[in-house]
What we know:
alpha/beta, six-stranded mixed beta sheet, 17 helices, 15 strands
Amino acid sequence: MNEMNAAPQASAELGSVLERLRDAWRANKPTLAQRRDDLGRLRHALSRRLDAMDAAIRADFGHRSPHENLISEAMVTLAEIDLARAKLRRWAKPRRVGVGWKFWPARAELRPVPVGVVGIISPWNYPVNLALVPLVSAIAAGNHVYLKPSEHTPRTSEFLRELLAEVFPEDRVAVAIGGADVGAAFSALPFDHLLFTGSTAVGRKVMAAAAPNLTPVTLELGGKAPAVVAPDFPLALAAARIASGKWFNAGQTCIGVDYALVDAARRDGFVEALRTQVVARFGDLSDASHYTRIINASQFDRLQGLLADARARGATVLPLVDVAADRSHAQRLLPPTLVLDAPDDSDLMRHEIFGPILPVKTYARLDDALSYIGTHDRPLALYPFSNDRTTVERIVDATLAGGVAVNDTLMHFAVDALPFGGIGPSGMGAIHGRAGFETFSKLLPIFRQSRWAATDLLRPPYAGFVDRLVRFLAR
Length: 475
Protein backbone atom coordinates (compact mmCIF):
# COMPACT_ATOMS: atom_id res chain seq x y z
CA MET A 1 0.00 0.00 0.00
CA ASN A 2 1.47 3.39 -0.90
CA GLU A 3 1.67 6.25 1.59
CA MET A 4 -1.09 8.27 -0.11
CA ASN A 5 -3.58 5.46 0.50
CA ALA A 6 -2.22 4.50 3.94
CA ALA A 7 -2.99 7.82 5.66
CA PRO A 8 -6.75 7.94 4.84
CA GLN A 9 -7.13 4.27 5.77
CA ALA A 10 -5.34 4.82 9.09
CA SER A 11 -7.57 7.81 9.77
CA ALA A 12 -10.74 5.85 8.96
CA GLU A 13 -9.75 2.94 11.20
CA LEU A 14 -8.81 5.22 14.06
CA GLY A 15 -12.04 7.16 13.65
CA SER A 16 -14.05 3.95 13.81
CA VAL A 17 -12.42 3.03 17.12
CA LEU A 18 -13.05 6.51 18.48
CA GLU A 19 -16.74 6.29 17.63
CA ARG A 20 -16.96 2.91 19.34
CA LEU A 21 -15.43 4.40 22.49
CA ARG A 22 -17.71 7.43 22.34
CA ASP A 23 -20.90 5.43 21.73
CA ALA A 24 -20.10 3.18 24.69
CA TRP A 25 -19.40 6.19 26.91
CA ARG A 26 -22.68 7.85 25.99
CA ALA A 27 -24.59 4.64 26.64
CA ASN A 28 -23.00 3.92 30.02
CA LYS A 29 -20.94 6.66 31.64
CA PRO A 30 -18.63 5.15 34.27
CA THR A 31 -19.87 5.42 37.84
CA LEU A 32 -17.51 6.18 40.71
CA ALA A 33 -17.66 2.53 41.74
CA GLN A 34 -16.68 1.38 38.26
CA ARG A 35 -13.84 3.87 38.02
CA ARG A 36 -12.42 2.77 41.36
CA ASP A 37 -12.76 -0.88 40.38
CA ASP A 38 -11.08 -0.25 37.01
CA LEU A 39 -8.13 1.41 38.72
CA GLY A 40 -7.85 -1.41 41.23
CA ARG A 41 -7.71 -4.01 38.48
CA LEU A 42 -5.13 -1.95 36.60
CA ARG A 43 -2.96 -1.81 39.72
CA HIS A 44 -3.23 -5.56 40.23
CA ALA A 45 -2.43 -6.33 36.60
CA LEU A 46 0.60 -4.02 36.48
CA SER A 47 1.93 -5.31 39.81
CA ARG A 48 1.94 -8.87 38.45
CA ARG A 49 3.80 -7.80 35.30
CA LEU A 50 6.72 -5.79 36.64
CA ASP A 51 9.26 -8.29 35.30
CA ALA A 52 7.63 -8.26 31.86
CA MET A 53 7.55 -4.46 31.91
CA ASP A 54 11.22 -4.30 32.85
CA ALA A 55 12.18 -6.74 30.10
CA ALA A 56 10.20 -4.87 27.44
CA ILE A 57 11.72 -1.49 28.31
CA ARG A 58 15.26 -2.85 28.51
CA ALA A 59 14.83 -4.52 25.12
CA ASP A 60 13.59 -1.28 23.54
CA PHE A 61 16.48 0.76 24.94
CA GLY A 62 19.14 -1.84 24.21
CA HIS A 63 19.66 -1.69 27.95
CA ARG A 64 18.14 0.36 30.72
CA SER A 65 18.86 0.23 34.41
CA PRO A 66 16.30 -2.07 36.10
CA HIS A 67 16.35 0.25 39.12
CA GLU A 68 15.36 3.18 36.93
CA ASN A 69 12.54 1.11 35.43
CA LEU A 70 11.11 0.21 38.81
CA ILE A 71 11.46 3.72 40.25
CA SER A 72 10.40 5.87 37.31
CA GLU A 73 7.85 3.59 35.67
CA ALA A 74 6.34 1.23 38.24
CA MET A 75 6.58 3.19 41.49
CA VAL A 76 5.30 6.46 40.02
CA THR A 77 2.39 4.77 38.22
CA LEU A 78 1.31 2.67 41.20
CA ALA A 79 1.45 5.72 43.47
CA GLU A 80 -0.77 7.65 41.03
CA ILE A 81 -3.31 4.80 41.03
CA ASP A 82 -3.32 4.63 44.82
CA LEU A 83 -3.84 8.37 45.15
CA ALA A 84 -6.69 8.43 42.64
CA ARG A 85 -8.50 5.55 44.32
CA ALA A 86 -8.09 7.12 47.76
CA LYS A 87 -9.20 10.61 46.74
CA LEU A 88 -11.71 9.84 43.99
CA ARG A 89 -14.86 10.45 45.98
CA ARG A 90 -13.55 13.74 47.34
CA TRP A 91 -12.36 14.95 43.92
CA ALA A 92 -15.70 14.08 42.29
CA LYS A 93 -17.83 15.72 44.96
CA PRO A 94 -19.57 18.95 43.85
CA ARG A 95 -18.16 22.07 45.50
CA ARG A 96 -20.49 24.68 46.95
CA VAL A 97 -19.94 28.19 45.61
CA GLY A 98 -21.28 31.26 47.34
CA VAL A 99 -23.71 33.31 45.24
CA GLY A 100 -23.60 36.50 47.29
CA TRP A 101 -26.44 38.27 49.07
CA LYS A 102 -27.86 39.73 45.84
CA PHE A 103 -28.88 36.24 44.65
CA TRP A 104 -30.02 34.86 48.00
CA PRO A 105 -31.59 32.34 48.56
CA ALA A 106 -30.26 30.71 45.37
CA ARG A 107 -27.38 28.19 45.55
CA ALA A 108 -24.50 27.33 43.21
CA GLU A 109 -21.96 24.56 42.82
CA LEU A 110 -19.09 23.38 40.63
CA ARG A 111 -19.59 19.77 39.60
CA PRO A 112 -16.70 17.79 38.00
CA VAL A 113 -18.15 15.82 35.11
CA PRO A 114 -16.35 13.61 32.56
CA VAL A 115 -15.84 15.02 29.09
CA GLY A 116 -16.09 11.85 26.99
CA VAL A 117 -13.18 10.24 25.15
CA VAL A 118 -9.64 11.36 25.96
CA GLY A 119 -6.78 10.85 23.51
CA ILE A 120 -3.28 10.30 24.95
CA ILE A 121 -0.10 10.42 22.86
CA SER A 122 2.78 9.18 25.01
CA PRO A 123 6.55 9.35 24.37
CA TRP A 124 9.38 6.83 24.42
CA ASN A 125 11.59 8.12 27.24
CA TYR A 126 9.32 6.90 30.07
CA PRO A 127 7.01 4.72 28.01
CA VAL A 128 4.91 3.23 30.83
CA ASN A 129 4.77 6.12 33.30
CA LEU A 130 3.87 8.77 30.70
CA ALA A 131 1.21 6.54 29.16
CA LEU A 132 -0.46 5.21 32.30
CA VAL A 133 -0.30 8.20 34.66
CA PRO A 134 -2.52 10.40 32.45
CA LEU A 135 -4.68 7.34 31.66
CA VAL A 136 -5.26 6.93 35.42
CA SER A 137 -6.43 10.54 35.67
CA ALA A 138 -8.70 10.21 32.64
CA ILE A 139 -10.28 6.99 33.95
CA ALA A 140 -10.69 8.49 37.44
CA ALA A 141 -12.50 11.46 35.88
CA GLY A 142 -14.98 9.08 34.22
CA ASN A 143 -13.78 9.10 30.63
CA HIS A 144 -12.95 6.47 28.05
CA VAL A 145 -9.40 6.53 26.70
CA TYR A 146 -7.68 6.04 23.35
CA LEU A 147 -3.89 5.68 23.79
CA LYS A 148 -1.21 6.10 21.12
CA PRO A 149 2.14 4.94 22.58
CA SER A 150 5.46 5.67 20.91
CA GLU A 151 6.60 3.70 17.87
CA HIS A 152 10.19 4.02 19.17
CA THR A 153 9.47 1.57 22.00
CA PRO A 154 7.51 -1.14 20.15
CA ARG A 155 7.95 -3.90 22.75
CA THR A 156 6.73 -1.64 25.55
CA SER A 157 3.83 -0.45 23.39
CA GLU A 158 2.80 -4.07 22.89
CA PHE A 159 3.16 -4.65 26.63
CA LEU A 160 0.78 -1.73 27.25
CA ARG A 161 -1.69 -3.01 24.67
CA GLU A 162 -1.82 -6.45 26.29
CA LEU A 163 -1.98 -5.04 29.82
CA LEU A 164 -4.87 -2.68 29.05
CA ALA A 165 -6.75 -5.28 27.02
CA GLU A 166 -6.83 -7.53 30.07
CA VAL A 167 -8.11 -4.79 32.39
CA PHE A 168 -10.56 -2.83 30.22
CA PRO A 169 -13.22 -3.74 27.65
CA GLU A 170 -12.26 -2.66 24.12
CA ASP A 171 -14.98 -0.01 24.13
CA ARG A 172 -13.59 1.63 27.29
CA VAL A 173 -9.83 1.76 26.57
CA ALA A 174 -8.21 1.22 23.18
CA VAL A 175 -4.59 1.34 22.01
CA ALA A 176 -3.41 2.51 18.58
CA ILE A 177 -0.13 0.95 17.49
CA GLY A 178 1.77 2.49 14.58
CA GLY A 179 4.30 4.97 13.29
CA ALA A 180 4.32 8.64 12.43
CA ASP A 181 1.42 8.32 9.96
CA VAL A 182 -0.79 6.82 12.66
CA GLY A 183 0.34 9.51 15.12
CA ALA A 184 -0.55 12.30 12.70
CA ALA A 185 -3.99 10.83 11.99
CA PHE A 186 -4.55 10.19 15.69
CA SER A 187 -3.88 13.83 16.66
CA ALA A 188 -6.42 15.01 14.07
CA LEU A 189 -9.30 12.98 15.56
CA PRO A 190 -12.15 14.90 17.23
CA PHE A 191 -11.37 13.91 20.81
CA ASP A 192 -13.06 15.54 23.77
CA HIS A 193 -9.57 16.21 25.15
CA LEU A 194 -6.11 15.41 23.80
CA LEU A 195 -2.88 15.06 25.81
CA PHE A 196 0.49 15.03 24.07
CA THR A 197 3.82 14.46 25.78
CA GLY A 198 6.93 14.99 23.69
CA SER A 199 9.08 17.60 21.99
CA THR A 200 8.09 21.22 21.46
CA ALA A 201 8.44 20.85 17.68
CA VAL A 202 6.02 17.93 17.51
CA GLY A 203 3.75 19.61 20.06
CA ARG A 204 3.20 22.46 17.62
CA LYS A 205 2.13 19.97 14.96
CA VAL A 206 -0.23 18.20 17.36
CA MET A 207 -1.85 21.47 18.37
CA ALA A 208 -2.27 22.46 14.73
CA ALA A 209 -3.85 19.09 13.90
CA ALA A 210 -6.29 19.43 16.83
CA ALA A 211 -7.26 23.02 16.00
CA PRO A 212 -9.82 22.30 13.21
CA ASN A 213 -11.85 20.23 15.69
CA LEU A 214 -11.35 22.80 18.50
CA THR A 215 -10.12 19.88 20.59
CA PRO A 216 -8.90 21.03 24.03
CA VAL A 217 -5.20 20.18 24.23
CA THR A 218 -2.80 19.60 27.10
CA LEU A 219 0.85 19.69 26.01
CA GLU A 220 3.64 18.30 28.18
CA LEU A 221 6.77 19.43 26.35
CA GLY A 222 10.34 20.15 27.40
CA GLY A 223 13.01 22.80 26.93
CA LYS A 224 16.27 23.75 28.52
CA ALA A 225 15.93 23.34 32.30
CA PRO A 226 18.69 25.24 34.13
CA ALA A 227 20.36 24.50 37.46
CA VAL A 228 21.63 27.65 39.18
CA VAL A 229 24.30 27.02 41.82
CA ALA A 230 24.60 30.06 44.07
CA PRO A 231 28.01 30.90 45.61
CA ASP A 232 26.88 29.88 49.11
CA PHE A 233 25.87 26.30 48.21
CA PRO A 234 28.33 23.41 48.81
CA LEU A 235 29.72 22.12 45.50
CA ALA A 236 29.80 18.46 46.51
CA LEU A 237 26.11 18.44 47.42
CA ALA A 238 25.13 20.41 44.31
CA ALA A 239 27.10 17.99 42.13
CA ALA A 240 25.47 14.96 43.75
CA ARG A 241 21.94 16.22 43.18
CA ILE A 242 22.59 17.59 39.71
CA ALA A 243 24.20 14.28 38.74
CA SER A 244 20.99 12.53 39.77
CA GLY A 245 18.89 14.94 37.73
CA LYS A 246 21.12 14.82 34.69
CA TRP A 247 22.21 11.22 34.27
CA PHE A 248 19.07 9.42 35.38
CA ASN A 249 17.86 7.57 32.25
CA ALA A 250 21.07 8.78 30.55
CA GLY A 251 19.67 12.29 30.47
CA GLN A 252 16.62 11.31 28.42
CA THR A 253 14.26 13.18 30.74
CA CYS A 254 12.16 16.23 29.89
CA ILE A 255 12.83 17.79 33.32
CA GLY A 256 16.47 16.70 33.43
CA VAL A 257 19.07 19.41 34.03
CA ASP A 258 19.88 20.81 30.58
CA TYR A 259 22.69 23.14 31.64
CA ALA A 260 24.29 24.29 34.89
CA LEU A 261 25.24 27.83 35.89
CA VAL A 262 27.95 28.15 38.55
CA ASP A 263 29.98 31.09 39.84
CA ALA A 264 33.17 31.40 37.79
CA ALA A 265 35.59 30.99 40.70
CA ARG A 266 34.25 27.53 41.48
CA ARG A 267 33.79 26.07 38.01
CA ASP A 268 36.80 23.75 38.11
CA GLY A 269 35.81 22.50 41.55
CA PHE A 270 32.30 21.84 40.27
CA VAL A 271 33.67 19.87 37.32
CA GLU A 272 35.75 17.67 39.63
CA ALA A 273 32.81 17.18 41.99
CA LEU A 274 30.70 15.96 39.05
CA ARG A 275 33.49 13.63 37.94
CA THR A 276 33.62 12.17 41.45
CA GLN A 277 29.86 11.59 41.40
CA VAL A 278 29.94 9.81 38.03
CA VAL A 279 32.77 7.50 39.05
CA ALA A 280 31.03 6.69 42.34
CA ARG A 281 27.76 5.86 40.55
CA PHE A 282 28.91 4.13 37.36
CA GLY A 283 32.59 3.32 37.81
CA ASP A 284 34.47 3.09 34.54
CA LEU A 285 31.37 1.76 32.74
CA SER A 286 33.09 -1.57 32.08
CA ASP A 287 29.99 -2.93 33.83
CA ALA A 288 27.30 -0.59 32.57
CA SER A 289 24.35 -2.54 33.98
CA HIS A 290 23.14 0.53 35.90
CA TYR A 291 23.63 3.00 33.06
CA THR A 292 20.91 3.43 30.44
CA ARG A 293 21.61 3.43 26.72
CA ILE A 294 20.47 5.98 24.15
CA ILE A 295 17.13 4.85 22.76
CA ASN A 296 18.12 4.41 19.10
CA ALA A 297 20.83 5.10 16.53
CA SER A 298 19.15 8.28 15.31
CA GLN A 299 19.19 9.84 18.78
CA PHE A 300 22.77 8.65 19.37
CA ASP A 301 23.93 10.28 16.14
CA ARG A 302 22.05 13.47 17.01
CA LEU A 303 23.87 13.71 20.35
CA GLN A 304 27.23 13.04 18.72
CA GLY A 305 26.41 15.82 16.29
CA LEU A 306 25.79 18.23 19.19
CA LEU A 307 29.23 17.42 20.59
CA ALA A 308 30.91 17.79 17.19
CA ASP A 309 29.27 21.17 16.66
CA ALA A 310 30.38 22.34 20.14
CA ARG A 311 33.98 21.27 19.47
CA ALA A 312 33.97 23.04 16.12
CA ARG A 313 32.88 26.24 17.86
CA GLY A 314 35.72 26.12 20.37
CA ALA A 315 34.04 24.46 23.35
CA THR A 316 35.85 21.99 25.59
CA VAL A 317 34.25 18.53 25.63
CA LEU A 318 35.04 16.45 28.74
CA PRO A 319 33.81 12.84 28.87
CA LEU A 320 33.78 11.96 32.58
CA VAL A 321 34.39 8.28 31.77
CA ASP A 322 36.49 6.94 28.91
CA VAL A 323 34.59 4.49 26.69
CA ALA A 324 36.10 3.02 23.51
CA ALA A 325 34.49 4.54 20.41
CA ASP A 326 33.60 1.18 18.86
CA ARG A 327 31.88 0.01 22.05
CA SER A 328 30.13 3.35 22.45
CA HIS A 329 28.63 3.18 18.97
CA ALA A 330 27.83 -0.54 19.03
CA GLN A 331 25.96 -0.31 22.35
CA ARG A 332 24.68 3.29 21.97
CA LEU A 333 26.52 3.92 25.23
CA LEU A 334 27.24 7.63 25.53
CA PRO A 335 29.15 8.36 28.77
CA PRO A 336 28.33 11.33 31.02
CA THR A 337 29.97 14.30 29.32
CA LEU A 338 30.54 17.93 30.28
CA VAL A 339 30.90 20.77 27.81
CA LEU A 340 32.67 23.94 28.92
CA ASP A 341 32.41 27.32 27.20
CA ALA A 342 29.75 26.25 24.71
CA PRO A 343 28.81 29.40 22.75
CA ASP A 344 25.21 30.51 22.81
CA ASP A 345 24.79 29.94 19.08
CA SER A 346 25.89 26.30 19.31
CA ASP A 347 23.29 23.62 18.70
CA LEU A 348 23.93 22.40 22.24
CA MET A 349 22.70 25.66 23.71
CA ARG A 350 19.90 26.34 21.23
CA HIS A 351 18.08 23.00 21.51
CA GLU A 352 16.98 20.65 24.28
CA ILE A 353 19.76 18.09 24.70
CA PHE A 354 17.83 15.03 25.91
CA GLY A 355 20.96 13.03 26.58
CA PRO A 356 23.86 12.66 29.06
CA ILE A 357 25.62 15.88 27.99
CA LEU A 358 25.80 18.74 30.50
CA PRO A 359 27.00 22.21 29.45
CA VAL A 360 28.53 24.11 32.36
CA LYS A 361 28.37 27.89 32.11
CA THR A 362 29.79 30.44 34.51
CA TYR A 363 28.60 33.79 35.80
CA ALA A 364 30.32 36.69 37.52
CA ARG A 365 27.18 37.90 39.33
CA LEU A 366 23.97 36.03 40.07
CA ASP A 367 22.04 38.72 38.19
CA ASP A 368 24.01 37.76 35.07
CA ALA A 369 22.84 34.16 35.39
CA LEU A 370 19.23 35.22 35.88
CA SER A 371 19.42 37.57 32.92
CA TYR A 372 20.72 34.74 30.74
CA ILE A 373 17.84 32.44 31.73
CA GLY A 374 15.32 35.23 31.26
CA THR A 375 16.32 35.86 27.64
CA HIS A 376 15.45 32.26 26.67
CA ASP A 377 12.23 30.27 26.49
CA ARG A 378 10.48 29.54 29.77
CA PRO A 379 11.74 26.14 30.95
CA LEU A 380 9.74 23.14 32.10
CA ALA A 381 11.82 22.99 35.30
CA LEU A 382 14.08 25.29 37.30
CA TYR A 383 16.62 24.13 39.88
CA PRO A 384 17.94 26.82 42.28
CA PHE A 385 20.68 25.75 44.69
CA SER A 386 21.15 28.02 47.68
CA ASN A 387 20.75 27.84 51.45
CA ASP A 388 19.85 31.51 51.56
CA ARG A 389 16.10 32.07 51.37
CA THR A 390 16.46 35.51 49.81
CA THR A 391 18.70 34.16 47.05
CA VAL A 392 16.27 31.35 46.29
CA GLU A 393 13.39 33.80 46.05
CA ARG A 394 15.42 36.01 43.70
CA ILE A 395 15.98 33.07 41.37
CA VAL A 396 12.38 31.87 41.52
CA ASP A 397 10.94 35.38 41.04
CA ALA A 398 13.18 36.03 38.03
CA THR A 399 12.22 32.87 36.12
CA LEU A 400 8.73 31.63 35.31
CA ALA A 401 9.09 27.88 34.88
CA GLY A 402 6.74 24.92 34.71
CA GLY A 403 7.91 23.74 38.12
CA VAL A 404 10.67 24.35 40.65
CA ALA A 405 12.73 22.06 42.88
CA VAL A 406 14.91 23.96 45.36
CA ASN A 407 18.23 22.33 46.26
CA ASP A 408 17.29 19.16 44.38
CA THR A 409 16.29 17.92 40.93
CA LEU A 410 13.41 15.88 39.48
CA MET A 411 11.71 15.31 42.85
CA HIS A 412 8.85 17.74 42.30
CA PHE A 413 7.58 15.43 39.54
CA ALA A 414 6.96 12.66 42.08
CA VAL A 415 4.91 14.79 44.52
CA ASP A 416 1.32 13.84 43.72
CA ALA A 417 -0.17 17.02 45.18
CA LEU A 418 1.87 19.24 42.84
CA PRO A 419 0.48 19.83 39.34
CA PHE A 420 2.98 18.97 36.61
CA GLY A 421 3.04 21.04 33.45
CA GLY A 422 4.92 23.67 31.49
CA ILE A 423 4.28 27.16 30.24
CA GLY A 424 4.63 28.52 26.72
CA PRO A 425 7.18 26.50 24.72
CA SER A 426 7.47 24.02 27.61
CA GLY A 427 3.77 23.18 27.52
CA MET A 428 0.26 24.07 28.63
CA GLY A 429 -2.10 22.52 31.12
CA ALA A 430 -1.20 20.14 33.94
CA ILE A 431 -1.46 16.52 35.02
CA HIS A 432 -0.88 14.47 38.20
CA GLY A 433 -3.21 14.01 41.13
CA ARG A 434 -6.19 16.32 41.41
CA ALA A 435 -4.81 18.53 38.63
CA GLY A 436 -4.92 15.57 36.23
CA PHE A 437 -8.44 14.65 37.34
CA GLU A 438 -9.64 18.20 36.67
CA THR A 439 -7.76 18.44 33.36
CA PHE A 440 -9.91 15.60 32.04
CA SER A 441 -13.11 16.91 33.63
CA LYS A 442 -15.47 19.77 32.93
CA LEU A 443 -16.03 21.81 36.08
CA LEU A 444 -19.70 22.37 35.38
CA PRO A 445 -21.16 25.52 37.02
CA ILE A 446 -24.71 24.92 38.26
CA PHE A 447 -26.97 27.69 39.60
CA ARG A 448 -30.09 26.58 41.51
CA GLN A 449 -32.97 28.95 41.87
CA SER A 450 -35.39 28.84 44.83
CA ARG A 451 -39.17 29.22 44.93
CA TRP A 452 -38.70 32.96 44.77
CA ALA A 453 -35.71 34.77 43.35
CA ALA A 454 -34.00 38.11 43.24
CA THR A 455 -35.01 38.40 39.58
CA ASP A 456 -38.64 38.53 40.74
CA LEU A 457 -37.84 42.04 41.96
CA LEU A 458 -37.40 43.17 38.36
CA ARG A 459 -41.17 42.89 37.84
CA PRO A 460 -43.59 45.62 38.82
CA PRO A 461 -44.17 46.90 41.40
CA TYR A 462 -40.60 46.31 42.64
CA ALA A 463 -38.62 47.65 39.66
CA GLY A 464 -38.43 51.19 41.05
CA PHE A 465 -37.11 49.89 44.37
CA VAL A 466 -34.40 47.89 42.58
CA ASP A 467 -33.39 50.95 40.56
CA ARG A 468 -32.96 53.02 43.71
CA LEU A 469 -31.04 50.20 45.42
CA VAL A 470 -28.55 49.88 42.56
CA ARG A 471 -27.95 53.63 42.49
CA PHE A 472 -27.40 53.60 46.25
CA LEU A 473 -24.88 50.75 46.02
CA ALA A 474 -23.06 52.48 43.15
CA ARG A 475 -22.32 55.62 45.18
